[in-house]
Design a protein that fits this description.
Order of helices and strands: EEEHEHEHEHHHEHEHHHE
Number of strands: 9
Helix content: 25-40%
Largest sheet: 9 strands, mixed
Strand content: 15-25%
Structural class: alpha/beta
Length: 308
């Protein structure tokens, strides 16, 4: 079981939510990495990456998204724009002054990053100098919409029906979830999870993320992701000219926990790209080293392609 870390700080939000923060690293960093986890997960999914990231001058900030882990839900209705505002608050609280920030988001966490770019574009390129988006989407997840063929619409409608059951009959739904899809970390109450599911289905910022062309963006996707199919990563890569697409052969949706080596490799590359202008020479050297040096024993690589 992924051990839930002990919060090192708490961030109060205007609607009463309290965000649990987990901060590792020095008091005088050269880079701050802010990591946002996915739906029904917690910050513990990044435990191994914090432990093995070989950058002693990096401050790593993880947090439980509201309603997940040790964070409370607050009074506001669940929405991805709300998560984007939370992310902005985390950046403000943990990366003061001119410190550059690398944003890392998995699944729902990636949606938070994309929504931040849409809602607060002034941060991108100034404060936020790079991003890593893993197994995520800018929108179009809801299969129940009319743009999909009948069979997919039926699947989408059945998911919405299941969400309604979870909201109105949470106890039976909770027991079924524990049997059918147990997780190695604490999950939010089933009715809250269903409300967050509806928020994921409403998420759509595909026409609002051109600002990400200001910074390097690494996009990581599992070849066999059934939750957010790879087509979503391909769309992101095509839309963001500064992106680099990393495909994990045979990879699934839970990249941080089921494919930790590939995730860490992408994280290291994103850290190198997030350094400010003074570190450009170091970034060039790092890229050169990657072209001639094999990965350490036990670490599998990713299939990389440049976005067109």
């Amino acid at each position: 079981m992924a051990q839930q870390p002990t919060p090192t700080a708490e961030l109060q939000r205007p609607d009463g939510a309290r965000l649990a923060l987990y901060i590792d690293g020095p008091s005088d960093p050269d880079l701050v990495v802010v990591m946002a986890h996915g739906w029904q997960a917690t910050a513990s999914v990044f435990n191994e990456h914090v432990r093995h990231l070989p950058r002693p001058r990096t401050r790593v900030v993880r947090y439980d998204q509201r309603g997940h882990g040790n964070s409370t839900g607050g009074r506001a209705l669940p929405s991805i724009p709300l998560l984007a505002d939370d992310l902005k608050a985390v950046i403000t609280a943990t990366a003061p002054g001119p410190l550059p920030v690398l944003l890392v988001g998995h699944s729902m966490g990636g949606m938070s990053v994309l929504a931040l770019a849409a809602q607060h574009p002034h941060l991108v390129g100034d404060k936020v100098t790079a991003a890593l988006l893993a197994a995520t989407t800018a929108g179009g997840l809801d299969l129940a919409t009319a743009v999909h063929p009948p069979l997919k619409r039926l699947i989408g409608l059945s998911r919405h029906a299941m969400a309604a059951v979870c909201i109105h009959a949470p106890m039976p739904a909770h027991h079924i979830r524990e049997i059918v899809r147990p997780r190695p970390y604490p999950q939010p109450p089933i009715d809250d999870a269903a409300r967050w599911f509806r928020a994921l289905m409403r998420h759509d910022v595909a026409q609002q993320i051109d600002v990400l062309a200001r910074i390097p963006v690494h996009i990581l996707v599992g070849e066999n992701d059934q939750t957010i199919p790879p087509i979503h990563a391909l769309r992101l890569a095509a839309q963001i000219p500064t992106s680099r697409l990393h495909v994990v052969p045979g990879g699934s949706h839970r990249l941080p926990t089921q494919h930790p080596e590939e995730f860490l490799t992408a994280l290291e590359r994103a850290c190198a790209d997030a350094l400010p202008a003074a570190g450009r020479r170091l970034r060039r050297l790092a890229r050169r080293d990657r072209t001639v040096t094999p990965l350490p024993a036990g670490r599998s690589g990713t299939a990389d392609s440049r976005a067109s």
